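Go through this chain.

——
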Amino acid sequence: MKTWTKIALAAGVIAAGAALFAQMPGNPMKMAQELNLTQQQQDQLRQLRFEQARKMIDLRRDVELQQLSLREEMTKDNPDPAKVDKAIDDLALAKAQVAKVRFSHMQQVRKILTPEQWQQARQLFRERMMERRGHRMGQGRGAWRQGRGRGMGRPSAPVPDGYGQGPDAPPPQDQPAP
């Protein structure tokens, strides 16, 4: 392979990596600017992110495999209660390991940041989580806080008048009040 081809390929890989980081929740590059991180802090956090990502690949795989084992046993015509119990315990252990690694990562990040940066990072993270919840619920920015989330989504068929409106709602037009 020619030198220019190798350089172009490497540049493409780097650009794709930068685009991936820019799309990640909590955009690390934007966060670095907002927190006024030093170059050393940015380098430490970048390395930490990659280490965390590598660990999480294996941990998520373990959780998914445990979920699959549980689902497989529970969907049998005659599930074995002992096997279901073991699968539940194994899944709980896998999820606990994920939580422990996430907490450890958070503590490592905290050691890199100053106390002021840590407090600001926590606030930015909270705000972004609320925004993501609103977007995930299909309502846009801040919808979760305003109670406009859709829960399990829109009903697939029209609902009758008065259905699901609560005890204080007026009765449907075709029915008398109780």
